[in-house]
Amino acid sequence: MVFKKDFLWGGATAANQCEGAYDVDGKGLSVADAMPGGRERMSIISSPNFNWDVELTNYRYPNHVGIDHYHRFKEDITLFAEMGFKAYRFSIAWSRIFPKGDELEPNEKGLAFYDALIDECLSYGIEPVITISHYEMPLHLAKEYGGWKNRQLVAFFERYAKVILERYAHKVKYWMTFNEINSAMEFPALSQGLIPSTGSDDYTNRFQAWHHQFVASALAVKIGKSVREDIQIGCMQIYAPLYAFDSNPENQFASQLKQRAFDYFTSDVQVRGYYPTYIKQLLKTYNATMPVMEEGDEELLRDNTVDYIGFSYYMSMAINEKSAEETDPAAGNLMEGVRNPFLEASEWGWQIDPLGLRISLNDLWDRYQVPLFIVENGLGAKDTIDEKGAINDDYRIEYLAKHIQTMKEAVEDGVDLMGYTPWGCIDLVAASTGEMSKRYGFIYVDLDDEGNGSFNRQKKKSFNWYKKVIASNGEDLENN
Description:
Layout: E1 8-12, H1 15-18, H2 41-45, H3 69-83, E2 87-91, H4 94-97, H5 108-123, E3 127-133, H6 139-145, H7 152-168, E4 174-178, H8 188-192, H9 203-227, E5 232-238, E6 242-244, H10 249-272, H11 279-285, H12 297-303, E7 308-312, E8 317-319, E9 329-332, E10 335-338, E11 344-345, E12 351-352, H13 354-368, E13 372-376, H14 394-413, E14 417-420, E15 443-445, E16 457-459, H15 461-471
Parallel strand pairs: 1-2, 1-14, 2-3, 3-4, 4-5, 5-7, 6-8, 7-13, 13-14
Antiparallel strand pairs: 9-10, 11-12, 15-16
Helix pairs in contact: 3-5, 7-9, 9-12, 13-14
Protein backbone atom coordinates (compact mmCIF):
# COMPACT_ATOMS: atom_id res chain seq x y z
CA MET A 1 0.00 0.00 0.00
CA VAL A 2 1.32 3.44 -0.95
CA PHE A 3 -1.00 5.53 1.22
CA LYS A 4 -1.03 5.40 5.01
CA LYS A 5 -3.45 3.01 6.69
CA ASP A 6 -5.26 6.00 8.26
CA PHE A 7 -5.24 8.10 5.06
CA LEU A 8 -8.14 10.56 5.16
CA TRP A 9 -10.21 9.79 2.06
CA GLY A 10 -13.35 11.86 1.78
CA GLY A 11 -14.88 14.92 0.17
CA ALA A 12 -15.22 18.66 0.66
CA THR A 13 -17.92 21.35 0.64
CA ALA A 14 -18.41 24.88 1.99
CA ALA A 15 -21.35 26.16 4.01
CA ASN A 16 -22.10 29.09 1.71
CA GLN A 17 -22.27 26.83 -1.36
CA CYS A 18 -24.34 23.96 -0.02
CA GLU A 19 -26.25 24.77 3.18
CA GLY A 20 -28.77 27.31 1.91
CA ALA A 21 -31.15 28.40 4.70
CA TYR A 22 -29.43 31.77 4.52
CA ASP A 23 -31.86 33.48 6.91
CA VAL A 24 -32.98 30.50 9.01
CA ASP A 25 -32.57 30.07 12.78
CA GLY A 26 -30.97 33.46 13.34
CA LYS A 27 -28.30 33.29 10.63
CA GLY A 28 -27.05 36.67 9.43
CA LEU A 29 -26.01 37.62 5.91
CA SER A 30 -22.51 36.76 4.73
CA VAL A 31 -20.50 38.25 1.89
CA ALA A 32 -21.40 35.18 -0.18
CA ASP A 33 -25.09 35.97 0.30
CA ALA A 34 -24.55 39.32 -1.46
CA MET A 35 -22.83 37.76 -4.48
CA PRO A 36 -25.08 37.26 -7.51
CA GLY A 37 -25.24 34.06 -9.51
CA GLY A 38 -24.03 33.66 -13.08
CA ARG A 39 -20.76 33.77 -14.97
CA GLU A 40 -20.57 37.54 -14.62
CA ARG A 41 -20.55 37.47 -10.81
CA MET A 42 -16.82 38.17 -10.48
CA SER A 43 -16.91 41.13 -12.88
CA ILE A 44 -19.99 42.53 -11.11
CA ILE A 45 -18.29 42.35 -7.72
CA SER A 46 -15.08 43.82 -9.16
CA SER A 47 -16.89 46.84 -10.58
CA PRO A 48 -16.10 50.21 -8.96
CA ASN A 49 -19.85 50.75 -8.66
CA PHE A 50 -20.52 47.60 -6.64
CA ASN A 51 -20.93 47.96 -2.91
CA TRP A 52 -21.99 45.61 -0.14
CA ASP A 53 -24.92 47.80 0.81
CA VAL A 54 -27.16 46.34 -1.89
CA GLU A 55 -30.77 45.29 -1.83
CA LEU A 56 -30.79 41.56 -2.44
CA THR A 57 -33.25 41.91 -5.30
CA ASN A 58 -31.00 43.04 -8.14
CA TYR A 59 -29.97 39.53 -9.20
CA ARG A 60 -30.58 35.89 -8.41
CA TYR A 61 -28.66 34.64 -5.38
CA PRO A 62 -28.22 30.85 -5.56
CA ASN A 63 -26.22 30.72 -2.32
CA HIS A 64 -29.42 31.58 -0.43
CA VAL A 65 -30.78 28.13 -1.21
CA GLY A 66 -27.64 26.15 -2.01
CA ILE A 67 -28.59 22.48 -2.18
CA ASP A 68 -30.49 22.72 1.12
CA HIS A 69 -27.80 20.76 2.94
CA TYR A 70 -28.99 22.53 6.10
CA HIS A 71 -32.17 20.45 6.08
CA ARG A 72 -30.86 17.41 4.20
CA PHE A 73 -27.46 16.84 5.81
CA LYS A 74 -28.45 13.47 7.30
CA GLU A 75 -29.33 12.16 3.86
CA ASP A 76 -26.07 13.52 2.46
CA ILE A 77 -23.89 12.12 5.26
CA THR A 78 -25.53 8.72 4.76
CA LEU A 79 -24.45 8.81 1.12
CA PHE A 80 -20.91 9.88 2.09
CA ALA A 81 -20.77 6.96 4.52
CA GLU A 82 -21.92 4.58 1.78
CA MET A 83 -18.94 5.71 -0.30
CA GLY A 84 -16.74 4.90 2.68
CA PHE A 85 -15.63 8.41 3.59
CA LYS A 86 -13.02 8.58 6.32
CA ALA A 87 -13.30 12.39 6.46
CA TYR A 88 -15.70 15.14 5.48
CA ARG A 89 -14.31 18.64 5.05
CA PHE A 90 -16.92 21.34 5.62
CA SER A 91 -17.00 24.88 6.94
CA ILE A 92 -18.84 26.60 9.73
CA ALA A 93 -20.74 29.67 8.56
CA TRP A 94 -19.40 32.48 10.76
CA SER A 95 -22.68 34.39 10.37
CA ARG A 96 -24.63 31.39 11.71
CA ILE A 97 -22.70 31.67 14.96
CA PHE A 98 -22.34 35.47 15.12
CA PRO A 99 -24.96 36.85 12.68
CA LYS A 100 -23.36 40.30 12.39
CA GLY A 101 -19.90 39.23 13.50
CA ASP A 102 -19.46 41.77 16.29
CA GLU A 103 -21.94 40.43 18.89
CA LEU A 104 -20.76 39.42 22.33
CA GLU A 105 -22.84 36.24 22.53
CA PRO A 106 -23.21 33.50 19.90
CA ASN A 107 -26.39 32.24 18.28
CA GLU A 108 -27.24 28.99 20.04
CA LYS A 109 -29.37 27.67 17.18
CA GLY A 110 -26.41 27.98 14.86
CA LEU A 111 -24.18 26.12 17.27
CA ALA A 112 -26.80 23.40 17.67
CA PHE A 113 -26.87 22.82 13.91
CA TYR A 114 -23.14 22.06 13.83
CA ASP A 115 -23.49 19.88 16.93
CA ALA A 116 -25.93 17.77 14.91
CA LEU A 117 -23.80 17.78 11.75
CA ILE A 118 -20.64 16.76 13.63
CA ASP A 119 -22.45 14.04 15.56
CA GLU A 120 -23.95 12.67 12.35
CA CYS A 121 -20.47 12.39 10.83
CA LEU A 122 -19.06 10.72 13.92
CA SER A 123 -21.93 8.22 14.05
CA TYR A 124 -20.57 6.80 10.77
CA GLY A 125 -16.92 7.02 11.78
CA ILE A 126 -16.32 10.04 9.53
CA GLU A 127 -13.74 12.53 10.81
CA PRO A 128 -14.96 16.13 10.46
CA VAL A 129 -12.35 18.44 8.94
CA ILE A 130 -13.59 21.95 9.67
CA THR A 131 -12.66 25.19 7.94
CA ILE A 132 -13.26 28.05 10.36
CA SER A 133 -13.71 30.70 7.66
CA HIS A 134 -14.51 29.69 4.07
CA TYR A 135 -15.52 32.80 2.12
CA GLU A 136 -18.32 33.38 4.65
CA MET A 137 -17.42 36.42 6.72
CA PRO A 138 -20.48 38.25 8.08
CA LEU A 139 -21.61 40.91 5.61
CA HIS A 140 -21.89 43.44 8.43
CA LEU A 141 -18.13 43.23 8.99
CA ALA A 142 -17.47 44.02 5.34
CA LYS A 143 -19.98 46.87 5.21
CA GLU A 144 -19.44 48.59 8.54
CA TYR A 145 -15.79 47.79 9.26
CA GLY A 146 -14.31 47.59 5.76
CA GLY A 147 -13.39 43.93 5.95
CA TRP A 148 -10.10 42.45 7.11
CA LYS A 149 -8.10 45.64 6.59
CA ASN A 150 -9.65 46.70 9.93
CA ARG A 151 -7.78 45.43 12.99
CA GLN A 152 -11.03 45.13 14.93
CA LEU A 153 -11.86 41.97 12.98
CA VAL A 154 -9.05 40.15 14.77
CA ALA A 155 -10.93 40.36 18.07
CA PHE A 156 -14.23 39.38 16.43
CA PHE A 157 -12.61 36.34 14.81
CA GLU A 158 -10.84 35.40 18.04
CA ARG A 159 -14.20 35.39 19.85
CA TYR A 160 -15.76 33.28 17.10
CA ALA A 161 -12.84 30.81 17.01
CA LYS A 162 -12.87 30.48 20.80
CA VAL A 163 -16.59 29.67 20.82
CA ILE A 164 -16.44 26.96 18.17
CA LEU A 165 -13.13 25.43 19.27
CA GLU A 166 -14.26 25.18 22.88
CA ARG A 167 -17.59 23.75 21.72
CA TYR A 168 -16.37 21.19 19.20
CA ALA A 169 -12.65 20.47 19.57
CA HIS A 170 -13.20 17.55 21.94
CA LYS A 171 -14.99 15.87 19.01
CA VAL A 172 -13.08 17.36 16.08
CA LYS A 173 -9.33 16.90 15.67
CA TYR A 174 -8.73 18.45 12.23
CA TRP A 175 -9.21 22.16 11.51
CA MET A 176 -8.14 24.85 9.04
CA THR A 177 -8.27 28.58 9.65
CA PHE A 178 -8.88 30.53 6.39
CA ASN A 179 -9.88 28.94 3.10
CA GLU A 180 -7.65 29.82 0.14
CA ILE A 181 -6.18 32.76 2.02
CA ASN A 182 -3.88 33.61 -0.90
CA SER A 183 -6.84 34.11 -3.27
CA ALA A 184 -6.90 37.76 -2.16
CA MET A 185 -3.85 38.36 -4.35
CA GLU A 186 -6.24 38.22 -7.31
CA PHE A 187 -9.73 38.61 -5.81
CA PRO A 188 -9.98 39.87 -2.20
CA ALA A 189 -13.78 40.10 -1.97
CA LEU A 190 -14.26 36.46 -0.98
CA SER A 191 -11.62 36.03 1.71
CA GLN A 192 -11.00 39.60 2.90
CA GLY A 193 -14.36 41.30 2.27
CA LEU A 194 -12.58 43.97 0.21
CA ILE A 195 -14.04 45.38 -3.00
CA PRO A 196 -13.00 48.42 -5.09
CA SER A 197 -15.37 50.77 -3.26
CA THR A 198 -13.74 49.80 0.07
CA GLY A 199 -10.13 49.94 -1.07
CA SER A 200 -9.28 46.62 -2.70
CA ASP A 201 -7.41 48.29 -5.57
CA ASP A 202 -4.78 49.54 -3.10
CA TYR A 203 -2.58 46.52 -2.36
CA THR A 204 -1.52 48.10 0.91
CA ASN A 205 -5.02 47.25 2.14
CA ARG A 206 -4.69 43.66 0.96
CA PHE A 207 -1.37 43.16 2.75
CA GLN A 208 -2.76 44.81 5.87
CA ALA A 209 -5.78 42.50 5.70
CA TRP A 210 -3.47 39.50 5.33
CA HIS A 211 -1.51 40.54 8.39
CA HIS A 212 -4.70 40.71 10.43
CA GLN A 213 -5.67 37.26 9.13
CA PHE A 214 -2.24 35.88 10.02
CA VAL A 215 -2.66 37.19 13.56
CA ALA A 216 -6.20 35.80 13.74
CA SER A 217 -5.02 32.43 12.45
CA ALA A 218 -2.26 32.30 15.06
CA LEU A 219 -4.78 33.13 17.78
CA ALA A 220 -6.99 30.26 16.59
CA VAL A 221 -4.01 27.90 16.78
CA LYS A 222 -3.23 29.13 20.28
CA ILE A 223 -6.83 28.63 21.41
CA GLY A 224 -7.04 25.19 19.80
CA LYS A 225 -3.84 23.97 21.46
CA SER A 226 -5.15 25.09 24.84
CA VAL A 227 -8.34 23.12 24.33
CA ARG A 228 -7.01 19.87 22.89
CA GLU A 229 -3.42 18.65 23.03
CA ASP A 230 -3.47 16.56 19.84
CA ILE A 231 -5.50 18.99 17.74
CA GLN A 232 -4.27 19.54 14.19
CA ILE A 233 -4.83 23.04 12.77
CA GLY A 234 -3.69 23.83 9.26
CA CYS A 235 -3.60 26.75 6.90
CA MET A 236 -5.35 26.46 3.53
CA GLN A 237 -4.39 27.95 0.20
CA ILE A 238 -4.70 27.64 -3.54
CA TYR A 239 -1.62 26.00 -4.99
CA ALA A 240 -0.84 26.01 -8.69
CA PRO A 241 2.49 25.47 -10.44
CA LEU A 242 3.36 28.55 -12.45
CA TYR A 243 5.42 27.49 -15.43
CA ALA A 244 7.55 29.76 -17.60
CA PHE A 245 5.91 29.75 -21.02
CA ASP A 246 9.27 29.10 -22.67
CA SER A 247 12.94 28.80 -21.79
CA ASN A 248 13.55 32.53 -21.76
CA PRO A 249 15.25 33.20 -18.41
CA GLU A 250 13.18 36.35 -18.00
CA ASN A 251 9.97 34.31 -18.17
CA GLN A 252 11.48 31.86 -15.72
CA PHE A 253 12.24 34.70 -13.32
CA ALA A 254 8.75 36.17 -13.80
CA SER A 255 7.20 32.80 -12.92
CA GLN A 256 9.41 32.59 -9.80
CA LEU A 257 8.29 36.03 -8.65
CA LYS A 258 4.65 35.17 -9.29
CA GLN A 259 5.02 31.90 -7.40
CA ARG A 260 6.50 33.70 -4.40
CA ALA A 261 3.60 36.14 -4.38
CA PHE A 262 0.78 33.71 -5.03
CA ASP A 263 1.90 30.25 -3.91
CA TYR A 264 4.30 30.93 -1.06
CA PHE A 265 3.83 34.24 0.73
CA THR A 266 0.85 33.31 2.93
CA SER A 267 2.16 29.83 3.74
CA ASP A 268 5.65 31.16 4.47
CA VAL A 269 4.19 33.30 7.25
CA GLN A 270 1.77 30.71 8.65
CA VAL A 271 4.12 27.71 8.50
CA ARG A 272 7.44 29.36 9.30
CA GLY A 273 6.07 31.98 11.68
CA TYR A 274 7.67 35.08 10.21
CA TYR A 275 7.58 37.30 7.15
CA PRO A 276 9.90 36.13 4.35
CA THR A 277 13.00 38.08 3.43
CA TYR A 278 11.52 38.87 0.00
CA ILE A 279 8.65 40.87 1.58
CA LYS A 280 10.19 44.25 0.71
CA GLN A 281 10.56 43.32 -2.94
CA LEU A 282 7.04 41.85 -2.96
CA LEU A 283 5.56 45.03 -1.55
CA LYS A 284 7.51 47.09 -4.08
CA THR A 285 6.13 44.96 -6.92
CA TYR A 286 2.57 45.67 -5.82
CA ASN A 287 3.20 49.31 -4.86
CA ALA A 288 2.25 48.58 -1.26
CA THR A 289 3.66 49.53 2.12
CA MET A 290 4.57 47.26 5.01
CA PRO A 291 1.56 46.25 7.13
CA VAL A 292 1.15 48.01 10.45
CA MET A 293 1.90 45.58 13.27
CA GLU A 294 1.05 45.81 16.93
CA GLU A 295 3.36 44.90 19.78
CA GLY A 296 3.37 41.14 20.27
CA ASP A 297 2.29 40.26 16.73
CA GLU A 298 5.66 38.86 15.69
CA GLU A 299 5.89 36.68 18.77
CA LEU A 300 2.34 35.45 18.26
CA LEU A 301 3.07 34.44 14.67
CA ARG A 302 6.34 32.77 15.67
CA ASP A 303 4.86 30.75 18.54
CA ASN A 304 1.62 29.60 16.87
CA THR A 305 2.45 28.14 13.49
CA VAL A 306 0.14 25.70 11.73
CA ASP A 307 0.51 21.92 11.90
CA TYR A 308 -0.06 21.15 8.23
CA ILE A 309 -0.80 22.71 4.86
CA GLY A 310 -4.20 22.12 3.33
CA PHE A 311 -4.46 23.20 -0.28
CA SER A 312 -6.69 23.18 -3.32
CA TYR A 313 -5.27 21.92 -6.58
CA TYR A 314 -7.20 22.21 -9.82
CA MET A 315 -4.80 23.42 -12.47
CA SER A 316 -1.47 24.95 -13.41
CA MET A 317 -0.79 28.17 -15.25
CA ALA A 318 1.85 29.41 -17.69
CA ILE A 319 3.49 32.81 -17.33
CA ASN A 320 4.57 34.80 -20.37
CA GLU A 321 5.89 38.31 -19.95
CA LYS A 322 8.77 38.32 -22.44
CA SER A 323 8.10 35.90 -25.28
CA ALA A 324 7.35 37.41 -28.67
CA GLU A 325 5.18 34.41 -29.48
CA GLU A 326 1.50 35.22 -29.35
CA THR A 327 -0.28 33.54 -26.45
CA ASP A 328 -3.89 33.14 -25.43
CA PRO A 329 -4.98 34.28 -21.98
CA ALA A 330 -6.09 31.64 -19.49
CA ALA A 331 -7.82 31.92 -16.15
CA GLY A 332 -9.23 29.74 -13.42
CA ASN A 333 -9.65 29.50 -9.67
CA LEU A 334 -8.99 33.19 -9.08
CA MET A 335 -5.72 33.40 -11.01
CA GLU A 336 -4.59 34.46 -14.46
CA GLY A 337 -1.88 33.52 -16.92
CA VAL A 338 -1.60 32.22 -20.47
CA ARG A 339 -2.70 29.03 -22.15
CA ASN A 340 -0.25 26.15 -21.91
CA PRO A 341 -0.13 24.47 -25.35
CA PHE A 342 0.68 21.09 -23.76
CA LEU A 343 -2.52 20.92 -21.70
CA GLU A 344 -6.23 20.45 -22.32
CA ALA A 345 -8.77 22.56 -20.44
CA SER A 346 -12.24 22.12 -19.00
CA GLU A 347 -15.29 23.82 -20.47
CA TRP A 348 -14.68 26.65 -17.99
CA GLY A 349 -11.07 27.06 -19.18
CA TRP A 350 -9.33 25.44 -16.20
CA GLN A 351 -6.22 23.67 -17.52
CA ILE A 352 -5.98 19.99 -16.63
CA ASP A 353 -2.54 19.00 -15.36
CA PRO A 354 -2.33 15.83 -13.23
CA LEU A 355 1.48 15.84 -13.22
CA GLY A 356 1.30 19.36 -11.84
CA LEU A 357 -0.14 17.89 -8.63
CA ARG A 358 2.97 15.75 -8.15
CA ILE A 359 5.10 18.82 -8.83
CA SER A 360 3.06 20.80 -6.29
CA LEU A 361 3.31 18.15 -3.59
CA ASN A 362 7.07 17.86 -4.02
CA ASP A 363 7.56 21.64 -4.07
CA LEU A 364 5.53 22.15 -0.89
CA TRP A 365 7.16 19.22 0.91
CA ASP A 366 10.68 20.29 -0.05
CA ARG A 367 10.01 23.86 1.10
CA TYR A 368 8.23 23.21 4.40
CA GLN A 369 8.62 19.60 5.59
CA VAL A 370 5.17 19.59 7.20
CA PRO A 371 2.32 17.18 6.38
CA LEU A 372 0.23 18.06 3.33
CA PHE A 373 -3.51 17.60 2.84
CA ILE A 374 -5.21 17.94 -0.57
CA VAL A 375 -8.53 19.37 0.57
CA GLU A 376 -9.87 20.35 -2.87
CA ASN A 377 -9.41 18.81 -6.31
CA GLY A 378 -11.91 18.04 -9.00
CA LEU A 379 -13.41 18.64 -12.41
CA GLY A 380 -16.25 21.08 -12.92
CA ALA A 381 -18.33 19.73 -15.80
CA LYS A 382 -21.85 19.56 -17.19
CA ASP A 383 -23.51 16.23 -16.37
CA THR A 384 -26.41 14.76 -18.30
CA ILE A 385 -28.90 12.07 -17.39
CA ASP A 386 -29.15 9.50 -20.21
CA GLU A 387 -32.25 7.72 -21.49
CA LYS A 388 -31.82 5.01 -18.84
CA GLY A 389 -31.70 7.59 -16.06
CA ALA A 390 -27.95 7.14 -15.43
CA ILE A 391 -25.18 9.74 -15.14
CA ASN A 392 -22.05 8.32 -16.73
CA ASP A 393 -19.39 10.82 -15.74
CA ASP A 394 -16.38 8.91 -17.09
CA TYR A 395 -14.61 12.25 -17.72
CA ARG A 396 -14.66 12.91 -13.97
CA ILE A 397 -13.40 9.43 -13.16
CA GLU A 398 -10.55 9.87 -15.65
CA TYR A 399 -9.61 13.26 -14.19
CA LEU A 400 -9.60 12.04 -10.58
CA ALA A 401 -7.84 8.74 -11.35
CA LYS A 402 -4.96 10.55 -13.05
CA HIS A 403 -4.59 12.93 -10.13
CA ILE A 404 -4.70 10.15 -7.52
CA GLN A 405 -2.04 8.28 -9.51
CA THR A 406 0.28 11.27 -9.33
CA MET A 407 -0.47 11.54 -5.59
CA LYS A 408 0.79 7.97 -5.21
CA GLU A 409 3.93 8.85 -7.10
CA ALA A 410 4.50 11.90 -4.88
CA VAL A 411 4.18 9.76 -1.76
CA GLU A 412 6.77 7.40 -3.26
CA ASP A 413 8.92 10.50 -3.81
CA GLY A 414 8.87 10.96 -0.03
CA VAL A 415 5.98 13.41 0.49
CA ASP A 416 4.04 13.13 3.76
CA LEU A 417 0.42 13.23 2.55
CA MET A 418 -2.41 13.15 5.10
CA GLY A 419 -5.50 12.83 2.97
CA TYR A 420 -7.58 13.70 -0.06
CA THR A 421 -11.01 15.33 -0.04
CA PRO A 422 -12.16 16.07 -3.62
CA TRP A 423 -14.13 19.25 -4.03
CA GLY A 424 -17.89 19.29 -4.24
CA CYS A 425 -18.32 15.62 -3.37
CA ILE A 426 -21.99 16.43 -3.81
CA ASP A 427 -23.05 18.97 -6.45
CA LEU A 428 -23.20 22.52 -5.08
CA VAL A 429 -23.22 26.14 -6.19
CA ALA A 430 -19.92 27.00 -7.91
CA ALA A 431 -18.02 29.78 -6.13
CA SER A 432 -16.53 31.28 -9.28
CA THR A 433 -19.77 31.50 -11.29
CA GLY A 434 -22.67 30.87 -8.93
CA GLU A 435 -23.85 28.07 -11.23
CA MET A 436 -25.27 24.63 -10.52
CA SER A 437 -24.46 23.47 -14.04
CA LYS A 438 -20.74 23.48 -13.17
CA ARG A 439 -20.88 20.20 -11.27
CA TYR A 440 -18.12 18.46 -9.33
CA GLY A 441 -19.92 15.83 -7.30
CA PHE A 442 -20.18 12.08 -7.04
CA ILE A 443 -23.81 12.82 -6.18
CA TYR A 444 -26.11 14.66 -8.55
CA VAL A 445 -28.52 17.23 -7.14
CA ASP A 446 -31.63 17.94 -9.22
CA LEU A 447 -31.33 21.71 -9.38
CA ASP A 448 -30.62 24.02 -12.32
CA ASP A 449 -29.03 27.45 -12.67
CA GLU A 450 -32.40 29.15 -12.30
CA GLY A 451 -33.15 27.41 -9.01
CA ASN A 452 -35.62 24.92 -10.46
CA GLY A 453 -35.61 21.29 -9.44
CA SER A 454 -36.62 18.71 -6.86
CA PHE A 455 -33.32 18.77 -4.88
CA ASN A 456 -33.35 14.97 -5.11
CA ARG A 457 -29.98 13.26 -4.79
CA GLN A 458 -28.77 10.69 -7.34
CA LYS A 459 -25.56 8.66 -7.50
CA LYS A 460 -23.37 9.19 -10.55
CA LYS A 461 -21.12 6.49 -12.02
CA SER A 462 -18.22 8.09 -10.16
CA PHE A 463 -19.95 7.33 -6.83
CA ASN A 464 -19.27 3.60 -6.99
CA TRP A 465 -15.86 4.18 -8.57
CA TYR A 466 -14.75 6.38 -5.66
CA LYS A 467 -16.22 3.88 -3.19
CA LYS A 468 -13.90 1.27 -4.71
CA VAL A 469 -10.93 3.66 -4.58
CA ILE A 470 -11.45 4.26 -0.87
CA ALA A 471 -12.01 0.59 -0.09
CA SER A 472 -8.70 -0.27 -1.80
CA ASN A 473 -6.87 2.66 -0.17
CA GLY A 474 -6.17 4.09 -3.59
CA GLU A 475 -4.86 0.89 -5.17
CA ASP A 476 -7.74 0.23 -7.56
CA LEU A 477 -8.24 3.18 -9.91
CA GLU A 478 -9.75 1.24 -12.79
CA ASN A 479 -13.01 2.43 -14.32
CA ASN A 480 -15.04 -0.75 -14.69
